[in-house]
Amino acid sequence: MSVLFEPFPLRNVVLPNRLVLPAMVTRLSGEDGLVNDDIRARYVRFARGGVGLIVLEAMAVHGAKSGPLLRISSDDFKPGLSDLRARVHDAGPSKVVPQIIHFLKIARSGWRQTVDMLSLEEIDAIVDAYGAAAVRARECGFDGVELHMAHAYTLSSFLSRLNPRKDAYGGSLANRLRLPLRVVERVRRRVGDDFTVGVRFLGEECIRNGYTVLDAGPIAIELARAGVDYVSLSAGGKFEDARVIEGEPLYPYTGYSGDRCMPGSAYPDGANLYIPEAVRAALRGAGLETPVIAAGKLGSLELAEKVVARGQGDLVGMARALLADPDLPNKWRAGREDTVVRCLYGNVCKALDESFRRVDCTLWPKKLGQAPLSADTEPPAWPAAGAGLRAECKDGRVLLRWQAASDNEAVYGYQVFRGERATTGGALVHHASVRALSTRYEDSRVVAGGDYRYAIRPYDLAGNRGPMTDVLDVHVPS
Ligand SMILES: Cc1cc2nc3c(=O)[nH]c(=O)nc-3n(C[C@H](O)[C@H](O)[C@H](O)COP(=O)(O)O)c2cc1C
Ligand code: SF4
Predict the structure, then answer these.
(1) Are residues 300 and 421 in the same domain?
(2) Looking at ligand 2, which residue's alpha carbon is closest to its atom 6?
(3) Could you read off the pLDDT of 134-185 as tens digits, one per residue?
(4) CATH number of the domain to which 397 belongs
(5) Are 218 and 282 in contact (CB under 8 A)?
(6) Which atom of ligand 1 is least distant from the CA of 352?
(7) Residue 288: helix, strand or coil by DSSP?
(8) Same domain membership, residue 408 and residue 347
(9) Can you give the residue range of the structural domain that contains 302?
(10) Helical H runs in 207-286?
(11) pLDDT tens by residue, 226-276
């Protein structure tokens, strides 16, 4: 059996496997911050797919105003969260922890509160709020709690090399760590020794003068020594390079650091793996066995296994790959990787989050509001006259077109396979996927004079693949 499906112990729980759903805001809650039907359906769907650990989307530890966001800032939120926790546990073997967050104020005028504006009393209140929220997480029956210290939010801004404070909370790394460590210590003291406490933080800020893995290693070591049970590494997602839009509050994923946080289709798979690799090496070098969660375009079984084999992570985080196909873990375990519906990494979900609209995957059938559930085993078929795959070279691009396939339920999409004589000797590899609405694909990643080969495969709602078309050879004119 794959190493990915070995049980993995954390402090008080054993994960059924090494696959993790990192936190992903859904914008399904209202501004009241309460769990509702849509949230329940979303996380039950993930749990049915068999992922080892579900990290629930960031929820606020304090009462500050925000757009739609879950909250754990008072006991009023406990009944909804307890019920959600119970439903997730009932739906499958997944363990589940909430990610808890403190954020500073932002305004439509472009103004934003920065850490140097906080008084010492306000800093103490952040420590109190995290401690109280972690206790609530425990009282709700969660398997642990994850402290959000990543991206553009308060604790990350303290860790940042751009933290402008002039007192004991800014400047040196020891000072920048002071509040995050106080939070870990308080949380640990309040939840006790038999409750998992994880931390998500940035392995690299991905902004000018921001910190890199050179600081992330020591940060991880200090957090681990303070009692955290895993470190989950993210990258970027900062205000400093966010796009400024008149009259809109800054959204911290619109600049280069946002691209690095949720690497899109232009980035290679595993684009950020050097980060968890370096942090894990630093921890092990310090004699610490704290597990590390890697993330960032890790959607294939081969790559996920390599992450563990190469020591680039102990646990494999997949956010968008699981949004696209929550059944991915069960499919991998059953040896049915070829039925996984693959994320396009086109970041429609990210754009929805940015505009405070419900975060759905662009692949899902419209109006369903979640990934389709299907136990069908009959694959789609091409028309009797064939798929009619043809190509046209225009303006340095290759435009492919084909006939629509049919299915007993519904065709869900098409996979585009490509071979390149110069680099792979023409071997076909998965290149992109296309939604069923379209029977065309434009390949703009070709060079003049290059020789390419293409083939298309349809798939249905359950991910069953239909037959591959004949291979089409294309020469791009010079
Ligand atoms: C729509 C969306 C919402 C996200 N919300 C959070 C969040 O609440 N907390 C967090 O730590 N990361 C958040 N992330 C980042 C993901 O957890 C993850 O690190 C990132 O998408 C890269 O992993 P992936 O390539 O597997 O998607 C979000 C990502 C997306 C696409
Ligand atoms: S919307 Fe696009 S990037 Fe997001 S999960 Fe779906 S396919 Fe992936």
Answers:
(1) no
(2) 361
(3) 999 999 999 999 999 999 999 999 999 999 999 999 999 999 999 999 999 9
(4) 2.60.40.10
(5) yes
(6) 1
(7) coil
(8) no
(9) 3-354
(10) 213-225, 256-261, 274-285
(11) 999 999 999 999 999 999 888 888 889 999 999 999 999 999 999 999 999
